[in-house]
Structures are given as C-alpha cells and as structure tokens.
Amino acid sequence: VPCSSSSLAVSLKAALIIQNWYRGYKARLKARQHYALTIFQSIEYADEQGQMQLSTFFSFMFENYAHVHKEELELRKQSLESEQDMRDRHDYVDLIDVPDSYNGPRLQFPLTCTDIDLLLEAFKEQQILHAHYVLEVLFETKKVLKQMPNFTHVQTSPSKELTICGDLHGKLDDLFMIFYKNGLPSENNPYVFNGDFVDRGKNSIEILMILCVSFLVYPNDLHLNRGNHEDFMMNLSSYFQLHGKRILQILEELYAWLPIGTIVDNEILVIHGGISETTDLNLLHHVERNKMKSVLIPPTETNRDYDTDSKHNKVGVTFNAHGRIKTNGSPIEHLPKHEWEQIIDILWSDPRGKNGCFPNTGRGGGCYFGPDVTSKILNKYQLKMLIRSHECKPEGYEICHDGKVVTIFSASNYYEEGSNRGAYIKLCSGTAPRFFQYQVTKATCFQPLRQRVYTMESSAIKILKERVISRKSDLTRAFQLQDHRKSGKLSLSQWAFCMENILGLNLPWRSLSSNLVNIDKNGNVEYMSSFQNIHIEKPVQEAHSTLVETLYRYRSDLEIIFNAIDTDHSGLISVEEFRAMWKLFSAHYNVLIDDSQVNKLANLMDLNKDGSIDFNEFLKAFYVVHRYEDLMKPGVTNLG
Amino acid sequence: MTKERNQALEIIVAEFHKKIKEAFEVFDHESNNTVDVREIGTIIRSLGCCPTEGELHDLIAEVEEEEPTGYIRFEKFLPVMTEILLERRYRPIPEDVLLRAFEVLDSAKRGFLTKDELIKYMTEEGEPFSQEEMEEMLSAAIDPESNSIHYKDYITMMVIDEN
C-alpha cells in the first residue's frame, strides 16, 4: 500500500484518468443508444405516414378502378362501410365447430374469472385458442361495447385504485408482467388499457382475447380505449390475415365500437393520442363513434349522378357536406368531416414543447399540440391532467407540459431488446399518480450496457440500411448531381444533405456516418459505399433492378392494397387485377416504370399459369439480403 | 487573417454547428431546442470530448440560465461547444495513458486488479463513481472466474468497441 504523498497523488491521478475515460465511454454508449432509438422512431413514423398517404391512393383507386370490377368493389365497400347489425351470431360463431380432438382452452359462456385464468395459463403454455372461441369472444365483446358510451367515467378511491396501461402492441410478455406485478383485473383492481393492444408484436390475438374476456367478466372495471392501431385497415397486412375473413369482419366492427376515452374522477382525461386546439369534448361525447371505421377509408362517391359538395381534409380524403354517399344499394353513412377529424386528433396527436397546434407531419395524421393548447383544453373542461400513450418512451413514461400531460407506454423492448422500459400508472383521487416500470428480457442473465447498446444499434442500422437500399436509384442520382468532379466522393455535409432529402428522415447523419458509409482519411465520403454489403434479392433473374427496388420499397403499401382488392380473402388476385392496380399505383405514386416490365413480371409470377397471383408469395419474393449478417462483431464476447 | 483562412474557418465552424445541432437534437425530446441539464455531459462526451466531472460542472454553469431552470437552451450551448471544439479542449485519453493509469494502481505488476481493489480506487479516489457507475463498469470488466479485471484485455475490447 503506497503511503508516500507523491505516490498517493499519482494513484489519485490514475484513478481520475480511469474514471474520466469510463464516463466518456459510457456517455458515448448512451448517445449511441439514443441514436438507435431515434432511428427506430423516425422509421416507424415515416411508415405510419406512408400508410396514411394510402388513403389518398384509395380514393384515387376507387374512383378509377370501379369500372374493372365494379360489382366486387361495391360489395367490398358496402361490407366495409355498412352497419352489420343484420348479421347475427349465426353468421360467425355457429359456423365453426370445436372438434373433440381440440386440446386448447375451452371457454364457458357466460364467462367468469375462471376463464381468465384458463386463458392466461393456456397462453403461457403457448397454446392456441380455437377460432370458434375467438369469434365468440369478439362477437360478445362487440355486443357489450355497443352499450358503452363514448367516454367512460370512472371514480377511484383508496381501496379501489385505477391502473392505466399504454400501448402493448401484441407483446404478451409485457401483459403477463403487468398482471404479475399488479394483479389480475377485478372489481377492486380496475384497469384502463389505453389503445394499441394489437399490431407489431406477435401475440395480438392473444392480448385481444385476454382483454376482451376480462372485459366481458368485468365490464365496469376493465376499460378499453381505442388506439390508432385498432383500425382494421392498419392491420390488414399483419397476421390477422392468417386468421380468416370472419375474424377480420368482426374486428372491423369491434374496433369501431371501442370507446374513445376515459375520464377519471372528473379531472383526468385518458385518451390514446392527444388533443388539438379545436378538441370539443362535448361533441366527442355524442358522435356516433362506430361510424369511424378507419383512418384509411375515404368515403368516395361511385355514383357520379349524386349531387355532392365534397371537401378534402388534411389526410386527403373526400366527403360530401352531409357525410352521406348513395350508391346502387343501401345508403352508406359516414361521420361528417369535422367529427371525423375530431376523432383523428384524439387517436393520432403528439404533445410537443412548442406552443401552438401544427399538423403532425411525422405521422401524417392528427397534430402536434403545445403546452398552451393543453392548458386551454384542460381549463375549458375543468380537467387537471391528460394521460395518453401513442409514443414509445425510454423509461416507459414521460411527463411534459408542466406536469399536465403524461405519456404511458407499456410495451418494453418495443424496438429491440433493451430499447426501453414499459410502465403503468396507478391513480387514486387525492394522491399523486404513481409510476411502475419493468422490462421483460429474454436473457437469463443481465447483459452489460455495451451489449444491450450494441444489439439495439445493429438492429437500428440494419433497418436504416434497408431503407437506403430501397432508394438506391434516387440516392445515386442525388449523389452524382452533387459530385461535380465525378470523383465518387462527397463531403460529409453533401452526403448528409442527400440522405436527409431523399429518405425524408430527420436523423443525425454526421454522427451515424461511420456506421453507414466509408470515409477516407480526408473526411470525405465514398458515397457508393452506402450500398455495400446489402442488396435486394431478385425474385427472377429477368427482373429489372429499378423495378425490384420499387416493389421492395412499396411492398407494405402494396400488401394493404392487394388485401383490400382481394374481396374473398383468398390470397389471390387475377393477373388482370394486378395489372390494372399497378397502372393506377404507378400513376398515383409517380413511379416511372415501364408497363411492359410490370406485365412481364406479372406473367413470371403467375407460376402455375392459371391467371392468378398469390400476392403474399409475390411480395415475400422481394427481400433484402445483408452480407455478413451472422458474423459476430469482434470483441463482443461477454466477459461478465 | 487572410481571406482564404477566414473562409476556411467559416466552413469549419459551419460543420461544427451542424454536428453540435445533430447531437443536441437527439436529446431534445420535446423538440423545443432545450435539453435536460443532466444530459449535457452525455452530449459533450458524444462529441468526442472528455471533460472531468469538475470541468463539466463549470461548463454547465456557463450554459445555464441566470436562474437555473433544469434545462439548457441550444442558443447558449452552441457558442460554448463550438469554442471547445475549435480549441480542441478536453481531448480524449490515449490508450497508452489509460494503460499506464491501470498499471500505476496495480503496484505489484500482476497484470490485473482484484474486484475489491478496483472498487476501492474507483469509489474512494479521484472523482468517485456512484454505485450505479461502479456496477456497470464491473459488469463488463470483470472476469467472473477470477473475480478480477485483466485491464489490458479490457482496454483492448473497449477500444475496438468505440471504433
């Protein structure tokens, strides 16, 4: 042990050096974590925006496509939009029997808490609930939801605290965690689930089942609010498709009957997204909420003879003045434009620090609302606080607008293992809200920070690169335009400018550059290296690269469109339909692809030459291959 | 200064501004050009600088409002950070200096430090670690079998990580 003063000073200095270095290292890790989160979030919202823009395409399509398959499309529109009260249980549930051989959970109607336990146990064992029960639960849930008002009023007390959960997005482990930590729903343990139960995670149906069954057992103590993903068009392309058309049909209605929000102790408003400066709670209490089918369904007129006065709203949808459109058959009803917009604002808006109310350009729907808007609306209705969800937060929750707005998000590790915690709130009148956080991890031992950051970062960079490759042609053109000397190199600034402009993502490009591109010793970017080690697989050799790139880029949009056209949910569309649809698509999205190339591709994809295309197979054929995908990065061995 | 040098400086400063803005925006959760003061250290370090805790404390005082609000505004942060980058202040610790620091603490020249020794130095000397910082460093650095830190390997791994 050194005891002289000079060696003490030396060891002090040594310790300081190590601490200084470590803090720098840790801060850079934290920054990398934030960069990864920013990437995930930007891409998520850009995708949502892309989906919203589909609504414009749909109006375009319905107007121009009708002559090709008028009847089928009429039926489709009618089934999408008409009130299905006429259909009863017989059309859904009774058509499917549960075979004796079925080993999964069997529910007993009327449901009791035993059924909740049964389901939870079964899902923990990864059993699958038979379609008969799924349909029955959904059908019964819809019936009860119809009796609920647009806003449920809830009172809390010390013996009856209310738990509020945010987005779950199909992540079953998080729901299990919440029930484990906070107990199952009951008369003394009420819950609010604030929307976005489904989509993205792989257990959407299971979560929906647990929540619906709990709701049926405790309809006054389990409250479900609609989220922007409780929209059958938003999850048309997800795996609900696998579960058959009947489930989709009931879901269409069930989602629309979900209440808009909850009001707690007359002072806290709980809704999924947010508000706008024009939010009118009185109006929202009275709208016919079930007429809000989907944010993507534009009510267009196919009967041109009908005298209309149509207007465009901010998502490019057309309505007539009374919200009614007549077609060849029954009247199809929609909400008037201003009511539709009120609901969109509730489901899609995000709070921001800047005063005022601006269109939510990130998502393409709803608005960004500032602290002044919050104060104004809360004061107007004598409320104290707004609790909302809709945005992933690293800690599972976030408080803003001077304590008046709380974001609660319950899907931990939403983007990637280690990306964020999940949280829930416990409310009791007279006391401050309490927050509880958790994180569900797959690893049996706790991973060190650097490992978690590395996992997140690689995942984020990977999806960003997929974005980049899907815009290769446009990016290359932009780079070359800037490269006056044809040197193959650009300054970091020029490269960042092109990336931001073409991809439309507001990301810290300079900080990310080392992960995305080669930089020479002078700090200049070899821009074509943006595309190295990754390519889009060609489904057939003959397919032209630009076509392949375009199809890859628009594949989720195309998936939704194909599913919408596929009226009998067969998974097949005719080559004729494909061609007609593609013509419209390329015209609307300004895609400069030769029609002959698409025809050629359509023929090549019609493998059994029977005139129909399995579009899921078709779309799956366009995917990205990352070179070096499975190689471990050197140095990533777990030392501890 | 000559005209060319002025122009060159302008370009450098413009690049720094963009770089600083990028790093700042990532932590600006509410998109209102402010960040929580507790994130300033992370931002400065993510830009490649390595101030000590004491130096960081002084920097924060420089960029804070007269009446501290808990938030730092971009307008105040930008000129201070630009200056730091231009003057190349708070340069990172070179690998060999770091190695020598460990070697100083390892007076018996064994090539490693025991867990207890590291904890003692890091939490009692210099600018002591918090418990969280100590746990985090240990989780990655420690070899569970020998309960010690083979610092040369540790440093090598960290350096690879950062590059």
UniProtKB/TrEMBL annotation, chain A:
Residues 553-588, 593-628 form the EF-hand domain. Keywords: Calcium, Hydrolase, Magnesium, Manganese, Metal-binding, Protein phosphatase, Repeat. InterPro entries: Calcineurin-like_PHP, EF-hand-dom_pair, EF_Hand_1_Ca_BS, EF_hand_dom, IQ_motif_EF-hand-BS, Metallo-depent_PP-like, PPP_dom, PPP_phosphatase. It is an enzyme of class 3 (hydrolase). Pfam families: EF-hand_7, IQ, Metallophos, PPP5. Its cofactor is Mg(2+); Mn(2+). Its EC number is 3.1.3.16. Gene3D superfamilies: 3.60.21.10, EF-hand. GO terms for biological process: detection of stimulus involved in sensory perception. One of its GO terms (molecular function) is manganese ion binding. It catalyses: O-phospho-L-seryl-[protein] + H2O = L-seryl-[protein] + phosphate; O-phospho-L-threonyl-[protein] + H2O = L-threonyl-[protein] + phosphate. SMART domains: EFh, PP2Ac. CDD domains: EFh, IQCD, MPP_RdgC. Belongs to the PPP phosphatase family. This is Serine/threonine-protein phosphatase with EF-hands. It comes from Mandrillus leucophaeus.
UniProtKB/TrEMBL annotation, chain B:
The gene is EFCAB2. Residues 15-50, 93-128 form the EF-hand domain. The keyword Repeat applies. InterPro entries: EF-hand-dom_pair, EF_hand_dom. PANTHER family: DYNEIN REGULATORY COMPLEX PROTEIN 8. This is EF-hand calcium binding domain 2. SUPFAM superfamilies: EF-hand. GO terms for cellular component: sperm principal piece. Keywords: Repeat. Pfam families: EF-hand_7 (PF13499). GO terms for molecular function: calcium ion binding.
